[in-house]
Design brief:
- The chain is an all-alpha fold.
- It has helices spanning 2-15, 19-50, 53-69, 77-86, 91-102, 104-120, 124-143, 146-152, 156-181, 184-210, 219-249, 251-274, 278-282, 287-323, 331-356, 360-422.
- Helix 4 (77-86) packs antiparallel against helix 5 and helix 9 runs antiparallel to helix 10.
- The longest helix is centred in the C-terminal third of the chain and has 63 residues, at 360-422.
- The protein is globular, with a radius of gyration of 22 Å.
């Protein structure tokens, strides 16, 4: 026991992290992300096996449109809830949920407008799918705010178990109907209805078990609006590559691109999401304390990212040979995208610091500038260069975004130092 305590204290001093907090929360967040990644991975395999490339490309395109409309469900409020609850302001939870439900008509209207466009152009598959998403998704998204509440309460175990159960049930039902129909619309409809029912049930379960108070937390809605607005450029930039490939190069090319992204994107998202663990902890830390270990954490993140990136380059051809024989030519393109893995932990760490410390100007600058750069690169290189052009644009924009975030951190540090000097 003494040896374990010594090892814990030694590691804590070396890495400058709260080992107890990391093991408690980090294990469950890692568990949640691992299980959800495996589930999503299996679903992706089934979809590529049962859908023709054109149908799979159409399926991904529908969810890209959903991603573009994401701004209308005020997703930025999740981070605001996590921070507010971490400070003891539990009232933020119900206030944000009520706000998101009250303004769900904005998303519904936008989804119906786009659905009408595709209906008019006789693309009924996309049109009906968007109607299903329009009716279910905004309510489901609002009710799912309970996950942000649980993160703020540091109920990582509870949050991970609920997420795992939800994803498992949803995926199994989607696969079941996929085997029966092999129709894109029915798969989207199943996703919409199942997630609405699951989120409604767990919202009811959480509010009855933990009984969050309604007092305080008034600032969370306004802060959440700001965070949502900041996501505007990022949301467009995140989906524009799929929109361009589908409309200029066809659904089959979009399917190829999705497969090339398959492993790098899951690894990137998994690593980046680990940084969410930092938000509740960093919300109660002073800026000067974070500044002391900032670059040490950047270096650690780069080393870990490099190891994972190189490892993926080595095993990618084997993975594609066994799992994606229909898309075997995409192995090389997937290896190119492994460069993004190297930057995942770095970007996740910096973004978590910006959000937890409420560095609004830096968040604004990061989201708007990096989003604008991605939009420009995707538009120019995607339309002219197709799949390869989009890949180069993606890698370039993420690299530029990383250097931009580090530059913004330095500017913020100078500003904070000037304030302390005046005091």
């Amino acid at each position: 026991m003494a040896a374990l305590l010594w090892l814990k204290n030694k590691t804590q001093r070396l890495l400058q992290i709260d080992i107890g907090y990391f093991l408690k929360g980090g294990f469950w967040i890692t568990f949640d992300n691992f299980i959800n990644t495996v589930i999503a991975f299996l679903l992706g395999i089934v979809l590529t096996k049962l859908f023709a490339p054109s149908d799979y490309g159409t399926y991904r395109y529908i969810f890209s449109i959903l991603g573009m409309l994401q701004i209308f469900v005020f997703g930025g409020m999740n981070s605001a809830v996590t921070q507010a609850v971490a400070r003891g302001e539990e009232g933020a939870f119900k206030k944000v949920v009520n706000f998101r439900l009250r303004y769900s008509f904005i998303f519904i209207s936008a989804a119906f407008i786009v659905a009408f466009y595709y209906f008019y152009n006789k693309n009924f598959q996309i049109s009906y799918s968007l109607i299903a998403l329009g009716l279910c998704y905004p309510i489901s998204s609002a009710l799912s705010t309970y996950q942000a509440f649980l993160q703020g309460k540091k109920e990582f175990r509870y949050s991970a178990l609920i997420s795992t159960i939800s994803q498992t049930i949803s995926t199994l039902l989607i696969i079941f109907f996929l085997f029966i129909t092999k129709k894109v619309f029915f798969v989207v409809l199943t996703y919409s209805l199942v997630n609405l029912i699951i989120n409604a049930y767990f919202f009811w379960k959480i509010t009855n078990k933990l009984k969050p108070t309604s007092a305080n937390g008034e600032g969370a809605v306004n802060y959440g609006k700001k965070l949502t607005f900041l996501q505007l450029f990022g949301v467009v930039a995140q989906q524009l590559d799929k929109i361009i490939l589908f409309n200029f190069w066809g659904p089959a090319v979009l399917a190829n691109y999705t497969i090339a992204q398959f492993f790098p994107d899951y690894i990137y998202s998994f690593l980046k999401s680990l940084s969410d663990l930092l938000i509740p902890k960093a919300s109660s830390m002073k800026f000067i304390k974070i500044s002391a270990f900032f670059y040490k954490r950047i270096l650690q993140s780069l080393l870990i990212g490099t190891f994972i990136s190189v490892s993926y380059i080595v095993i990618a051809p084997t993975l594609f040979h066994f799992l994606f024989q229909k898309y075997i030519d995409m192995s090389f393109y997937s290896q190119l995208l492994s460069f993004n893995i190297l930057l995942a932990l770095v970007n996740g760490f910096i973004n978590s610091i910006f959000v937890s410390q409420k560095l609004i100007k830096s968040i604004y600058a990061s989201q708007i500038i990096s989003g604008f750069i991605r939009i420009i690169l995707f538009t120019i290189m995607g339309i002219s260069g197709g799949l390869l052009g989009i890949l180069i644009a993606d890698i370039s924009s993420r690299t530029i975004g990383t250097f931009l975030n580090i530059t913004l951190w330095e500017l913020e540090k100078k500003y904070q130092n000037s304030l302390s000097t005046k005091i």
